[in-house]
Amino acid sequence: MTVSASLLATAAVLCAVGGILMLTRPLTRILLGAVIAGNGINLLVLSATGSAGREPLLYGVELGRVTDPLPQAIALTAIVITLATTAFLLAMAYRSHQLTGTDEVHDDDEDRRIVLRAEVLGERDELREQYRAEAEPSAEAQRRYRAERRRLRARLRADRALQARGRDASGDLWHDVLGADAEDYAAGRPTERPEPPTNRGDTG
Amino acid sequence: MNALVPLPVLLPLCATGLSLAFGTRLKQFQRFISVAVLTAVLGLSVALMIAADMNGPLSVHLGDFAPPLGITLVADRLSGLMLTVSSAVTLCVLVYSLGQGMADRDEETPVAVFHPAYLILVAGVSCTFLAGDLVNLYVGFEIMLVASFVLLTLGGTGPRIRAGSTYVIISLFSSMLFLTAIAMTYAATGTANFAQLAGRLAELPLGVQTLIQGMLLTVFAIKAAVFPLAAWLPDSYPTAPAPVTAVFAGLLTKVGVYCMLRTETLLFPGNRLGDLLMAAALASMVVGILGAVAQTDLKRLLSFTLISHIGYMVFGIGLATREAYGGAIVYVVHHITVQTTLFLVAGLIERRGGTTELTRLGGIAKAAPVLAVLFFVPAMNLAGIPPLSGFIGKLGLMRAGVADGSVWAWILVIGSTATSLLTLYVMAKVWNLAFWRAAPPGQAADGTVLESDDDSDDDTDEGPDRMPGTGDEGVRPRHEPAGRAVAATLHGHAVTTTTRLPRLMTWATAATVALGLAYTVFAGPLTAYTDRSAAELIARVPYVEAVLGR
């Protein structure tokens, strides 16, 4: 089976371009990436026919010399499916823009939590080291140290409370755009609830 | 009999048309169509399962085109069983969603879309189970995915769009990978038909074979949420409406497992990537369950146990002996049912307690004993407590592992034991927090609209909600959004909490619990059947002969 090199090269370039676009944040770019990469893969499917022959018609063409019609059918199916998905993604990007003013894909909740935790723990260790390094901690240093620790704990707790409400970092924005709870937003974040007893020990 | 094979795909698709045509005006008619069609599909699936068991695989070439050209649908023992279980579960979930729609008095547009999308999802799932070639499998996946996009973002609220974008992008990516794998396979062998591939793939150079196998496994592992490729799942499932999450958790991941099972046995016998699969299985089990231990939201927690328990099935596939395949199939059947049940119960808990955040729940065992029983049975089932079906599945897999006796198999046996103990721990944690302890201060009482996402409900009676009988003075201001992420109605509003559980939802959940218990009662016939399916999978000849004749 011989395959046209230009077809393969085009497919490779399209897939690469699409791949890079899909790694970006905004949904519209991801959509463009998906469309471009999808076209590249369709070319790849077409290249599975091997060298081109005559058009695959039932009558009037010698049967032995026609192109394999099956990859064309597969590619057509894929094109139709890509069309539907494109329409859906576009609608979703628009809706996302309507809701948040941007169509960026947000961070994973879990990732954000882990990063925050790592940050807070790192800062705490640093603080502790600094504090321990002082031979005779003054009352002032002690007070500052305690305040810093409190601040870190509050940060974790605020994040947990936020998560309990199931909103991510930019949750206020949705809240705002979705409307209706203006007074809530104006008043800042809702007050924190007392820590439930089951969550202790998280801040160390 | 063979003519019945395409019907599980065709019926839901036709019903979708009817549903869309009449759905906006005749709500009752729409509901009737959905229930009637899914019941018919269930009946058909049972018939196909029995026929495939008695007479061997049934196959149909649509339009009577010979194998490499036409679309081939095949129903063998494995597909028959999967179809039966999936249609039983989808029927229960449909009834549950009807109950939920009635309970929330949802009469507006998104719900008119719910039924058609749900039917298309069922058609897609049936199509993948029946597909006799790679291209049709791809199409089945896509049908299922497009429907799932719509269902996941139903109502179009902020959290759902956010969750949906992750899901859509991941799905798009895996579809592309799948299409590339199909192109490679076709270029190498000149066919996409499973039965023909079974013969032709073996003639390829080893490197090409492994490449194709690796690509397909990656695609299916993304669908099945096997560990390194599972990060999308806990982020996208929990925000969907309760019945949608339930059916996704139960079915969509298991469709991936089914495809792995099918391709590993039929196309790539000899288990070349067995060790890799076992390593992935171990990682899924351990990482998934540790993730579940760390969660405090019930739906997220259940999503992590889902990832963890996918590991068991992959373990069975990686072992690749007859007992292991049998055990894996039992486990798939068990897990579809039990995971769906748990998510349905989570929906009920949300309705009763106003949230699925465990730190805010409490006292449900006393307030709603029925709900407590409905949770307890599947939870113990998931953990694998002896008489229940989870135990049967785990036992089968572990026996296969011990019989295999290799180092990896032993590691996996130990790993799966630890995982089931940790599952028990997680379930006990949920039980203690949500059901057993006294209600925490400020729990939502009856009939409070906790939070609604997109409309300012103007009930300004900020009557302090006190839990009767707990004696606490906790006052919860109206704007304390207790149930926000978990806004579980079809529209994406938060649910209205009630002290009385909606009857239809409870009955539907009870039906899935009963289905889970039935696996224990009929464990003998079930394991005998799965053993026969495993034998058929390993033999390969019946399948190939059913498709290609001879």
From TrEMBL, chain B:
<feature type="transmembrane region" description="Helical">
    <location>
        <begin position="273"/>
        <end position="294"/>
    </location>
</feature>
<feature type="transmembrane region" description="Helical">
    <location>
        <begin position="328"/>
        <end position="349"/>
    </location>
</feature>
<keyword id="KW-0812">Transmembrane</keyword>
<feature type="compositionally biased region" description="Acidic residues">
    <location>
        <begin position="451"/>
        <end position="462"/>
    </location>
</feature>
<feature type="transmembrane region" description="Helical">
    <location>
        <begin position="301"/>
        <end position="322"/>
    </location>
</feature>
<feature type="transmembrane region" description="Helical">
    <location>
        <begin position="408"/>
        <end position="428"/>
    </location>
</feature>
<keyword id="KW-0472">Membrane</keyword>
<feature type="region of interest" description="Disordered">
    <location>
        <begin position="445"/>
        <end position="479"/>
    </location>
</feature>
<feature type="transmembrane region" description="Helical">
    <location>
        <begin position="111"/>
        <end position="131"/>
    </location>
</feature>
<feature type="transmembrane region" description="Helical">
    <location>
        <begin position="31"/>
        <end position="51"/>
    </location>
</feature>
<feature type="transmembrane region" description="Helical">
    <location>
        <begin position="81"/>
        <end position="99"/>
    </location>
</feature>
<feature type="transmembrane region" description="Helical">
    <location>
        <begin position="370"/>
        <end position="388"/>
    </location>
</feature>
<feature type="transmembrane region" description="Helical">
    <location>
        <begin position="240"/>
        <end position="261"/>
    </location>
</feature>
<keyword id="KW-1133">Transmembrane helix</keyword>
<feature type="transmembrane region" description="Helical">
    <location>
        <begin position="504"/>
        <end position="522"/>
    </location>
</feature>
<feature type="transmembrane region" description="Helical">
    <location>
        <begin position="208"/>
        <end position="233"/>
    </location>
</feature>
<dbReference type="Pfam" id="PF00361">
    <property type="entry name" value="Proton_antipo_M"/>
</dbReference>
<dbReference type="InterPro" id="IPR001750">
    <property type="entry name" value="ND/Mrp_TM"/>
</dbReference>
<comment type="similarity">
    <text>Belongs to the CPA3 antiporters (TC 2.A.63) subunit D family.</text>
</comment>
<keyword id="KW-1003">Cell membrane</keyword>
<protein>
    <submittedName>
        <fullName>Na+/H+ antiporter subunit D</fullName>
    </submittedName>
</protein>
<feature type="transmembrane region" description="Helical">
    <location>
        <begin position="167"/>
        <end position="188"/>
    </location>
</feature>
<dbReference type="InterPro" id="IPR050586">
    <property type="entry name" value="CPA3_Na-H_Antiporter_D"/>
</dbReference>
<feature type="domain" description="NADH:quinone oxidoreductase/Mrp antiporter transmembrane">
    <location>
        <begin position="131"/>
        <end position="416"/>
    </location>
</feature>
<feature type="transmembrane region" description="Helical">
    <location>
        <begin position="137"/>
        <end position="155"/>
    </location>
</feature>
